[in-house]
């Protein structure tokens, strides 16, 4: 699982460098994000710009990440591609997560 984790303007940005979050990588994804965000600030943005496919295991891994970060930190999503956005909408997870169209939009919303 290729992840890039950095802190910018007091926000932790987790960028996924893979085009899929599915059963094959879900456990590695959860573990990598858990380890990479242990000392993260209160806002964590998950940048999904490169992700083109997500299945139920991937969705579950993102939900587990949100629960792991709470209550000290909040997980915000950014850059959902149309296929990924459709999964979030169909499962009504779009009402659970704060979702921004782009990473830049998410940073503007949380750096002010």
From TrEMBL:
Domain annotation STAS: ranges: 21-110
Signal peptide positions on this chain: none
Superkingdom classification of source: Bacteria
SUPFAM superfamilies: SpoIIaa-like
Molecular-function GO terms, alphabetical: anti-sigma factor antagonist activity
Pfam families per UniProt: STAS
Family listed: Belongs to the anti-sigma-factor antagonist family.
UniProt-listed PANTHER family: ANTI-SIGMA FACTOR ANTAGONIST TM_1081-RELATED-RELATED
Protein name: Anti-sigma factor antagonist
Organism: Sulfitobacter geojensis
Lineage, uppermost ranks: Bacteria, Pseudomonadati, Pseudomonadota, Alphaproteobacteria, Rhodobacterales
């Amino acid at each position: 699982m290729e992840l890039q984790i950095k802190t910018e303007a007091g926000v932790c940005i987790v960028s996924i460098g893979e085009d899929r979050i599915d059963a094959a990588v879900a456990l590695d994804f959860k573990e990598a994000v858990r380890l990479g965000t242990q000392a993260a600030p209160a806002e964590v943005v998950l940048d999904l710009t490169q992700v083109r496919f997500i299945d139920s295991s991937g969705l579950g891994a993102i939900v587990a990440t949100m629960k792991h970060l709470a209550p000290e930190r909040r997980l915000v999503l950014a850059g959902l591609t149309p296929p990924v956005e459709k999964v979030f909408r169909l499962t009504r997870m779009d009402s659970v997560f704060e979702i921004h169209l782009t990473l830049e939009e998410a940073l503007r919303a949380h750096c002010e």
